[in-house]
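Appendix B. Raw example, untouched.
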Amino acid sequence: MRSLILPLFLIVNLCASGGTASAQEGERKPAIAVEKWTGKTIMLIGAHADDDALSHGTLAMLQAHANQIYILTLTTGNVGTQDPNLSRTQLGQIRRQEELAALGELGIPAEHYINLGYDDGLLEFEDRKAVVENLVRWIRKLRPDVLFAWDPGKNYQRWHKSDHRAASYLAADAARAAMWRLLFEGQITQEGLKEYMIPEYLFYNDYDYGDENTWVDITEFVDKKINAGAKYVSQFGPGWKNYKPDLSEAELKQMKDGVRSRVRIKDGKPVEGFRYYRGLPDAIGK
């Protein structure tokens, strides 16, 4: 049974080295451009409040186009600060408030934000089976058409910092496990859920951009991306070493300028890049 829960990057490696259905067979561009998606359920799994910031322009656009967006964050973000006066409890509460404020800028309702409450910086040391089971439960409940997640790697194990690395493989493993009826069967026999296979994926990364195969034009949503990114006061700008909830006009401008400077430009347009994948998360022997 343990062999059924393997990181997706390992499955990809095995397929690329001789499996009958290679990972590249799933590496297609969306049949319908992301800018035209409507009526879909979108789920994003990230390690921290702000991991979704890499996709804020795309998420704002999808929300505006009548898609249902759910953001699932694995940790409370209760460690990452240089302010010696903040406790872990205070920081976790601040990070939640900042995330809800950012999602509000994108039009995503607060009740679509889910936080699983694990400790920041220690995600890879949690009980892996328990975390995957938790994620599988949410996948089976929400039944997303598309999963956004940290990229676990194409044909190789991608390098990430600790929590991002853990989140990428946990999300991939949960997506794979959710489709198997006899994995976490109690969710089906006792909770009334059903097995589910996610049909499409958009993987993102914060550096080493070589794997993108899909670019989303966010021209009309850049301001929303910038306004949302400026809500993470405790993580960027003046709040990193000396947190304060209310910024001066100059400090707010500094925050927004920082977000704007990280917007990527392709062919003269602001974009967000993803590695799109479609198909079975388990291709071995298919």
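End of appendix B.
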